[in-house]
Structure prediction request, 336 residues.
Amino acid sequence: MAAGSTYTPIATTTLGSNAASYTFSSIPSTYTDLVLIVNGEVSSSTTVSCQINADTGTNYSTTEIFSDGTTASSFRISNNAQIAVMGIGAQTSSGYPFMSILNFQNYSNTTTYKTVLGRTNQANLGVNAIAALWRSTSAINSIKLLGYLGASGFTAGTTFTLYGITAA
Amino acid sequence: MPNTYTLISATTLSSSASTVTLSSIPSTYTDLHLVCSLRSDYSSATNNAYCYFNSSDGGTAKLIYGNGSTVNNININYNESYIGGINAATSTSNTFTNFSLYIPNYLSSNYKSSSEDSVTENNATQAFSFLAARAWEYTAAVTSITFRLQFSTYAVGSTFYLYGIKNS
Prediction:
């Protein structure tokens, strides 16, 4: 019997104009894991952040390792209102884009809290890896990416793509 | 639906090679994912490796790496495509470096951002884990990927698997 597709694009968008945030909604529960890819720029320096299922409560924690090429650092924030993906520097359209890969394993189960593993890069600013937790046993059905501290968020041309991975 | 995650090329070295080029990358995908298993014939525990696009040997990058005792940082401005130290001849036998490189939007007319992770394991003191944020400061589409070394050659058995990922 032929197997179904293992790695499936769920949704993708390219911003036509600047946006403070972007939300993947109505995420089907039929996959095992999710992979979210973001590639683009921000119009003012900001901390790109992530919220799940429109939860704005202090139900997130993040542990990060980061290097700016000169100094390594690590931080942890608990009981936060979002996952801190990475601080991103503002760039022009011909500057250095950032990219982020966020992995949401076992996202649709209703038994465990949800963990996120992330890698984010902006070559003229730094490299990071995060491990994050959303303290909810709910299945993930929406993911919002936003610029937290900055005002302008993501610039036109930024792409957001969500893939589903099926284990069997 | 067409395959989302497709093998573009698979290379396994049957003889040592000073450089390996994956060429004629088609323009039919959205992102590229390169997964490699690397070892060098150089008579040391590690050898410095480099990876660049379209014969343009350079780029800007921030790297962080640990060796089990300390964390180190590398800042590269425009001029080098260094990806880290890989297993070489005097490292633990049968041990190859795992290297993963992800390029979103490799056809974009913006600079290309890539995310790189590698592990150079060794049953001794000289072992490393690298994370890198890299930008290739060209607006052309990526059509080839080249690996080279500081010294000597890539060893027999080194593998290079290039996958194309399509977002729709």
